[in-house]
Amino acid sequence: MSEHKEVKPEDIKNEAEEKRCPVQKAMYYIEQFLAGPMCGKCFPCSFGTYEVKIRLKEILSGRGTEADIFALKRIAHEMIVASRCKKGKDTAKFILEWMDTGAFHEHTEGVCREKECLDFIEYRIVPEKCIMCGECKVVCKYDAIIGENRKPYLSGYLPFEIRLKRCTKCGECIKVCPTGAIEIADIKDYIKVKV
Q: Is the CA virtual torsion 62, 68, 70, 71 positive or negative?
C-alpha cells in the first residue's frame, strides 16, 4: 500500500518562488492549490480561489485591468477573514505578498519586468550584432527565423529576422547565438515605436 504524502501550501509556495515574475508565481500557486490541498469545504476559499485564477488569467493575457487587481485584493482579504482553515488564509496571504511587488499593476500596463510572461514579450534579432551565421535558424523547430548565411564572396543577402507569428518564444535561438544578437523585448515598447 503506497503512502500518499499531503502537499502543503508552503511547499507549493516554495515551488512558485522559482519563477521570477510575481504574477507567474501567483498563477502557479493557485493552479497547484486547486489541484491539491484545497479541500473545497468552505465557500470563501473555494469560490475565492477560482475567482483569483480567472483574474490572474486576464492579467497574464494582457487583458487585465485595475478592476482585476482591486478584485484580487478584495477576495484575498475576504479569504483571510472568512476561510475556515489555515490553507485558505495562507493562500490569500501569499497572493497579497506577491501583489505588494507592483508587478500586477505593471502587467495591466502591458509590461512584465522579468520578461517571463509570453504575452508581453517578443524575440528580435538586433541587425548590428548579427554575424549572419545561421545558428538560430538551424535550431528553430518552428521555422520562425528567415535569412541567409553570410558568404564572403556575395553581397545583398537577406538578413536574419524572426517571424513573430511563428515564434513560440522557446528561447532555443538565444542559447545558440554566439554574439547575443537575439533579445527579448517588451511588445509594448515595440508598438510605441511603430505608431
A: negative
Is 132 found in the same domain as 177? yes
Q: How do residues 17-27 score in pLDDT, each as one tens digit?
A: 999 999 999 99
Instruction: Give the range of the structural domain holding residue 131, as residue numbers without chain letter.
Output: 118-194
Please name the residues in contact with 7: beta carbons below 8 A apart, sequence gap of 6 or more.
32, 36, 37
pTM (2 d.p.): 0.82
For 65-122, write each residue's pLDDT tens digit.
999 999 999 999 999 999 998 999 999 999 999 999 999 999 999 999 999 999 999 9
Based on the fold, state whether residues 97 and 159 are members of the same structural domain.
no
3-state SS of the chain is CCCCCCCCHHHHHHHHCCCCCHHHHHHHHHHHHHHCCCCCCCHHHHHHHHHHHHHHHHHHHCCCCHHHHHHHHHHHHHHHHHCCCHHHHHHHHHHHHHHCCCHHHHHHCCCCCCCCCHHHEEEEECCCCCCCCCHHHHHCCCCCEECCCCCCCCCCCCCCEECCCCCCCCCHHHHHCCCCCEEEEEHHHHHHHHC
Query: Residue 134 and residue 132: Cα distance in Å, rounded?
Result: 6
- Cα–Cα dist 81/89, whole Å: 7
